[in-house]
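Entry: Peptide ABC transporter substrate-binding protein
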Amino acid sequence: MAKSVMTPVHLTNKMSTTSRIVALTATACLTAAACGGGGGTGPGGAGGTVTIGLSSDPGTLNPMAIAGSAAGVMNVFAYDPLVNIAADGQVVAGLAQSWKVHGADRVEFGLRDGVTCGDGTPLKASDVANQFNYIADPKNQSPLLGLSVPRTTTATGDDATRTVTVTTRDPAPMLLRMSSMVAIACPKGLSAPNTLARASDGTGPYILSEVVPGDHYTYVKRKGYTWGPGGVGNDQSPEKVIFKVVPSETTATNLLLSGRLDMAQVLGPDRQRLESSGLKPQTVNALLGQLIFAEGPGHATADEHVRRALVHALDLGQLGSVATGGKGTPSKGLGLVEPRMCPGDNITGNLPTHDLTRAAAELTAAGWTKTGNGWAKEGRTLEIAFTYPSSGEQTIAAAELAVQQWKALGVKVTTSTFTGTTLASVLGGDAWDVSWPPITAALPDQLVPFFSGPRPPGGMNFGGTDNPDYQRLVAAARVKPDAAGCADWNGAEIALFKRVDVVPFVDTRVTMFGKGVTFRLDRGAIVPTALRKH
């Protein structure tokens, strides 16, 4: 059973809309935790050191100031959540040995006995409640607020009964699952959160012992840990775990093959070298290709007919193949990490298919007239502004292919690119009509602000989507706890696809390789109690 402190987001420690925009668009496993578990543990003795490659420095390690990213991958070694999510999507025990869901606005957790912090301090129910209240206080500017802790949350802790009660004023149907994304800090760290940037103070199976920013981070195994996922301990885990910053995948591949790294995520062409050497990765699908449209005043894409025409003009299968080097699979829904709480294929039959004749008919229905090599309406030429990621050779090639296919329809296209640092300003602005951001989250509820509500800076609805069917189905889902609302959540996705508000079209394989180790992943995080050194 997997340990679930991760969310598939990468946030700064600011509460601004722009930081949240950046947060929910990253997809790489070790850089944004948008991948899920697979594989299992094999034989292996305790002891030894495991060295894991990271593609970037984690920055702050404060669990209340990050959500996702390399820091989140590392923090699962030092911190525990109240509950975990198993590989089959079921909720299993963490720090809490029991829980009771009361409707869509309250959950009671019964803490395990005997849980202690790394320094031996017993963990009390009031300590856990204090952390939820800390995150829920807007003054603290935690990026977890609104993502893994609802905005109207209050928490209480009864130390005598070891009961933690988390309550929200507004419906929060996934409150139980959201708690799996909160890494619980101990009271000393919570009283001085800034000290956690380069140190750890949690109940997890390891303690951070050495920090060399930009180079490596060392964790040492603690004694007496018996409260891991499902009640497992760390007695068979390695004595030390070192996270080594290795920005180049080629370098990481060389280090892995030579034995100087034990584990690394490799997504690009170097993956073939590792597979040829006999190393078998753990793999999971993660959303890579997705288009969204600007639907505000002044945008041609505000017209559903135009959106349909643009998608009819595209061969999404071909685009997906180019973007993934032929290794991708068609998307089945919005970007939710595996295991999806509400599985199903919400896309097949609900998006326009490749058909230039139907594309032209849609433009005609929207009042556009074919004129030579283009389209015109009321003296205006049909032209769209398309923005896409500036990195990833295959992604760029796929975006350029999309431009060619739109031009084949007679649509003029101007292009621009964004980076991780400019994404917020680009999507928060109004100078684009079509964009390619693979937005990924852990739970359906976390994606709602992207397709309803205000645009930036007041919200995260990039395209200004206003889909009544989506809003109606979301409202119905939000009053049903946990998976009871799945039919409505899936229906809400389908409503977006049928109106061509968003077009997910390809998932990529996210691969983690190991040599001389066995391991299991949970939403991008290595499960410490399942890690073995051979």
